[in-house]
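FORM 7B - TANDEM STRUCTURE REPORT

SECTION 1: FIRST PROTEIN
SEQUENCE AND TOKENS:
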Amino acid sequence: MTGRFDRLSLNRFSSEDKALGIAAGAVLAGAVGLSVLNPLGGGRAVAETPANAAAVAEQGTASQKSSNVKTVKASAAAEARREGFKVPPHAVKADEVIKLAKKQVGVREGRGGETKYHKWYVSTPHAKATAKRDGGFSVKEYNGAQWCNMFVSWLGAQTGVKNMGWDAYTVQHASWFKQTDRWGHKAKPGAVVFFDWQDGSKAGIGDIDHVGIVVKDNGNGKITTIEGNTENAVKQKVRDKSEVVGYGYPDYAR
């Protein structure tokens, strides 16, 4: 659960900001646009914004407008898939992520310690960015590496949660949550929970060993979690809060 790839979102940008961009939904004449910000590409901010998407959708006859809206939506979905999302980022409730996490319980490592979470992460442009950030190694080195943070990242990509962040390195992921004011010490369902096995709540972000998703606060000093890379599998666990360094809070719908 430790090591470079577990202790492996670039500074203040989330995976949505870096890889896909900011998925902005706008109901303007029935149009939904995708605004792309790519700081890894030199900070270019292009593609369709809600405003110009609406303008495109407003052009022509009612039939043409409907066709334009469908084109914009299809373009957003295609861009999301290219960057690793199953669906474009949108309003998602914590229960949806927890439900998906529960379905993963029991998934075990295969040959070479690999999982579908490795396969997904390596396939994303974000993997190339983090590999470059952390030393310029080949993304192939992620295969079979510690994967608790890849599991958490996969949950966000599959559900389209806004600002869950993606990484393979728990310290960088936790740092991003703190830098973007999404860090705290209250256990909330769906929060990303970071652990240190030696000093627990007394440790700093640089000491983090492991990560998972909070299912619930049990109200007795313990939390129920779902974690990848736990005894080589995805497991539901009950953990003492004293082991928790802190929590990252994605932008969940209420």
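SECTION 2: SECOND PROTEIN
SEQUENCE AND TOKENS:
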Amino acid sequence: MEQLDRTNDAVELCGEIVGKPELSHTARDGEYFKFPLAIERLSGTLDIVNVVVSRQMMESLEVEPLPRLRVLGEVRSFNNRSGSGPRLVITVLAKHMEFTDDGYANSVLITGSLCKDPNLRRTPMGREICDMMIAVNRPYGRSDYLPCIAWGSLAREAACWHVGDQVKLSGRLQSRTYIKLLDGQAVEKTAYEISISALSLMEGV
């Protein structure tokens, strides 16, 4: 993965744009837009990740007749207090974009601290899974809170960690749909999490 400014939070995605950019928010440095990027797994399942990009970067992107868009950036979280939509919004803030004919890519590297006790459980099929919430520091005292999951032996290892432990993780940013009952109606929702492929505890930090 190419080196980015934040060595504790780096993402590389390569996939297809599957929706038009829409205004996400306005900040002091200008407008930001959001669009969905589809990345195919080896299994054929699609992860649909929302990418946020500044107007300046979007307008300066050179349009090429190539099938996929490569994005380098950072995972960001936002606590949605509007009362509609998910409470924790997960996106990727683009730092670099280019069109490419490279294959699909979905790679995340983060370093942060465990901010909730790990939750080790079993799926209905009997697989062990551990849910975690990792706080990743940004500059200027802010943090992103990123849900992560580990499976099998990695899940058992992570279950032994404690709140405040400093950890390093790699994996992919995945989307997962589920059904939630709202006012008696079944509504399809989408959750985002980092599916861990490797992890380590940072001793002495």
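SECTION 3: OBSERVATIONS ON SECOND PROTEIN
The helical segments are 55-60, 152-158.
The longest helix spans residues 152-158.

SECTION 4: SIGNATURE
Preparer initials: ____
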